[in-house]
Amino acid sequence: MSIDPGSYTPAPDLLKDRVIMVTGAGDGIGATAARTFAKHGATVALLGRTRQKLEAVYDAIESDGRPKPSIAVMDFATAVAGDYQDLADSIDSEFGRLDGVLHNAGILGHRSPIEHYEVATWLDVMHVNLNAQFILTQAILPLLKKSDDPTLVFTSSGVGRSGRAYWGAYAASKFGTEGLMQTLADECDWMRVNCINPGATRTAMRQAAYPEEDPAALKTPADIMATYLYLMGADSRGITGQSLNCQ
Ligand SMILES: NC(=O)c1ccc[n+]([C@@H]2O[C@H](COP(=O)([O-])OP(=O)(O)OC[C@H]3O[C@@H](n4cnc5c(N)ncnc54)[C@H](OP(=O)(O)O)[C@@H]3O)[C@@H](O)[C@H]2O)c1
Predict the structure, then answer these.
(1) Ordered domains of the chain (ranges, CATH)
(2) Segment 16-35 mean pLDDT
(3) E-only strand ranges, 24-145
(4) Is 84 one of the annotated active-site residues of the chain?
(5) Residue 247 to residues 164, 219, 236, 244, Cα–Cα distance (Å)
(6) Percent of the chain with pLDDT over 90
(7) Counting runs of H as helices and runs of E as strands, what totals does the chain give?
(8) What's the pLDDT tens digit per position in 133-170?
(9) I need a surface site. Which of 12, 95, 157, 235 has the fewest CB within 10 A?
(10) How far apart are CA 232 and CA 66, in angstroms?
(11) Which ligand 1 atom lies nearest to the CA of residue 50?
(12) In 10 A of CB 17, how many CB atoms?
C-alpha cells in the first residue's frame, strides 16, 4: 500500500493539539519528521541518543514558531527497563498522553554474509532495532490509551519484507518489526498500528549502506513526508496492520 504524495494534501493544522513522540529525532528522517509534525501543529517529544543533535532540532522547531517540543536523551543500546518507565513517567507528567509515536531510530550494522556476520553486531542491531521498540511500546501503551485517536508507526524497510543477501541482522530486525506491528495491530482495536517503509532516502544510514551511490539521485527526507503525515493524522483512521511505502 502507498499514498500518492501528489494526491494527498495534508491540512496545515492536521496535527494540531496532538502530542507525538519521534525516536531517532536528531538526524535523518526522524529529524525531518519531527520538524514536519511540528509544522502541522503537533507538540513533539524528541527522543534520541545525542543531546546536541536533539537540541538543534528543538531550536529549529522553536525558530519555526511551532509548539515547544521536549527532549529525552536515551541510548537504546544501553537503556534498561527503569529508563523506559522513567521516560513514560516524564511524558505523562509533562503532556498527560501520547497521540502518536514514530518508531524511527535504527542502526544498519554491517553488510556481510550470514556465514561471517559478527555475533556481537547481530545482537546490537536486533536490540536497538527490535527489542527496544518492544520495550518502549510496552512502557508507553498507557499514554496512548489516554488519546482520543492514537496512532503508532513502526519503520520497516524493503529488506524487512523480502530477504536480501548481506543485509543480515538489519533485514531480520525489520522482519521482526513487521511481525511486532501486525501482532500489536491485531491485539489493539482501540489504536491504529502500521509500518512505514521510507524507501531509498538521502541520509547517513543510506550513505553507509551504499557508499558509491550519488546521494543527489535520492529522495530527501522532506520528499517522503506525505505518508508520515497521513499515518500520524486523522486521515488514516481505520487503517491498521498495514505496511505502507513512501516511494
Ligand atoms: N534512509 C533510507 O534509505 C532508509 C530506507 C529504509 C528504511 N530506513 C529506516 O528509516 C529509519 C531512519 O533511518 P535514517 O536513514 O534516517 O538513518 P540515520 O540518518 O542514521 O538516523 C538514525 C537515527 O536513529 C538514531 N539512533 C541510532 N541508534 C540509536 C540508539 N542506540 N538509541 C537511540 N537512537 C539511536 C540516530 O541517532 P544519532 O544521530 O544520535 O546517531 C539517528 O537519529 C531507520 O529505522 C532505518 O532503518 C531508512
Answers:
(1) 19-245 (3.40.50.720)
(2) 98
(3) 43-48, 70-73, 100-103
(4) no
(5) 19, 9, 18, 9
(6) 97
(7) 8, 7
(8) 999 999 999 999 999 999 999 999 999 999 999 999 99
(9) 12
(10) 17
(11) 40
(12) 11
- Expressed in angstroms and rounded, the spacing between residue 105 Cα and the centre of ligand 1 is 4
How many other C-beta atoms are found inside a 10 Å radius of the C-beta of residue 152? 26
Which amino acid is located at 19 in the chain?
V
Distances (CA, A) of 228 to 94, 101, 209: 24, 11, 23
Which residues does a 6 A CB cutoff place in the pocket of ligand 1? Answer: 24, 26-30, 48-50, 53, 75-77, 104-107, 128, 155, 157, 198, 200-201, 203-206
Which ligand 1 atom sits nearest the alpha carbon of residue 156?
Answer: 7
What is the average pLDDT value for the chain, to the nearest integer? 97
> What H or E segment, with its residue span, contains residue 194?
strand 192-197
pTM of the model: 0.98
| Element holding 195 (H helix, E strand) | strand 192-197
Which ranges of the chain does DSSP label H, i.e. alpha helix? Answer: 28-39, 51-63, 81-95, 119-126, 132-144, 168-187, 204-209, 225-232
Residue pLDDT, tens place only, 165-191: 999 999 999 999 999 999 999 999 999
Whether residue 5 is predicted with pLDDT greater than 70 in this model: the reply is no
Contact 229, 33 (CB under 8 A): no
What is the Å distance from ligand 1's center to 213 Cα?
Answer: 18
pLDDT at 28 over 70: yes
Confidence class of residue 7 from pLDDT cuts 50, 70 and 90? confident
Cell 536515551 identifies what position? 74
> Cα–Cα–Cα angle for 210, 167, 126, nearest 5°?
120
